[in-house]
Each structure stands twice: as structure tokens, then as C-alpha cells.
Specification:
Helix content is 27%, strand content 30%. The chain has three helices and eight strands, in the order αβββββββαβα. It binds nickel (II) ion (NI).
Length: 168
């Protein structure tokens, strides 16, 4: 396993549409292992293959709730509700922005053995799944941010302050 370089905003590869994976080769297995290592090293909750420079429909998510998710050729088949909150991306380091997304999502895809799988999520998990799937079509959350991008540290401090105020 090895850490891969995370491509950042402005890198053209992040705007390209990724190709379907047809079979799991040793090279793709190595890519997936490297993606997990790279995501954990960067303390992210999700990563898509184009973020490490590979235009294939592979994404991973681990919000720390249960088993890490790896999805191949994922597609959204259902959404419900709405949530608005701050979102970040390893390709846009140090920044967050307010994004409105569905509060629930159901995704069909394949696991690392190319077995069909169904993954459902709400709240952060839904947000992460949709965010990573959008990477596979060359889209970044910055395209749908409401207002300006904020400094991640400032936004966290602001959120903490709002929580303290609501406790009064
Ligand atoms: Ni991202």
C-alpha cells in the first residue's frame, strides 16, 4: 500500500467523467487499498478515484459508524428529504461551504468482489455518498455552495459558538 497524491481544485482531472470498471484486476485492488490509506491519512470521510488521478468509477466512504464502504460503478436510485450543512472535500483543503443535499440516499453498485450491493444512508452518510458519486462525473461541491467558501477552522469555531448560544 502507498499514499497517493490528492489532486486539488484547479486540476483538470477533477472535472472529467470517469469510466465504468469492468473487472477487478490486481491493479484496481491496489488502487482501492491506496485510496483507503490516503483517505485515512488525510482524515477524510470519503474519496473518489479521480481525486488520486484515476478516471474510474470507484469511491470509498467511511464516516466511522460501521464497516467502510467501497463502491464500484455506483448509481443513485432513490433520494428523500433535504439537509443543509457545511461540507468539505480533500481536494479543496482547509475550506468548507454550505451545501443542500437530500437527507436520504439509496445507491446501487458493486463491491470489491464485483458483487451487486445496495447501500443506504441518511445525514452525513448520505451527504458523503452523493458527494463522492458526483466526483465520478467531474463535479465538485464548490459548484453548489450557497454563499462563499469559508475557512474550515473559522467555520468550526462559528458552529461551536452557535451551539453555546443555543444552550442559553
Ligand atoms: Ni470531495
Amino acid at each position: 500500500m502507498a499514499l497517493r497524491t490528492i489532486r486539488t481544485l484547479g486540476d483538470e482531472i477533477l472535472t472529467k467523467k470517469c469510466k465504468d470498471v469492468k473487472e477487478i484486476t490486481p491493479r484496481i485492488n491496489e488502487l482501492i487499498d491506496d485510496m483507503f490509506e490516503t483517505m485515512y491519512d488525510a482524515e477524510g470521510v470519503g474519496l473518489a478515484a479521480p481525486q488520486v488521478g484515476v478516471l474510474k468509477r470507484i469511491m470509498i466512504v467511511d464516516i466511522g459508524d460501521d464497516a467502510p464502504i467501497c463502491l464500484i460503478n455506483p448509481r443513485i436510485v432513490d433520494t428523500d428529504g433535504e439537509q443543509t450543512g457545511n461540507e468539505g472535500c480533500l481536494s479543496v483543503p482547509g475550506k468548507v461551504g454550505k451545501v443542500t443535499r437530500p437527507n436520504y440516499v439509496k445507491v446501487l453498485g458493486f463491491d470489491r468482489e464485483m458483487k451487486p450491493v445496495e447501500v443506504e444512508g441518511t445525514e452525513l452518510k448520505a451527504r458523503a455518498l452523493i458527494h463522492e458519486i458526483e466526483h465520478l462525473d467531474g463535479h465538485l461541491y464548490t459548484e453548489k455552495v450557497e454563499g462563499a467558501l469559508m475557512d474550515a477552522e473559522e467555520a468550526a469555531a462559528q458552529e461551536e459558538e452557535e451551539m453555546i448560544q443555543s444552550d442559553d
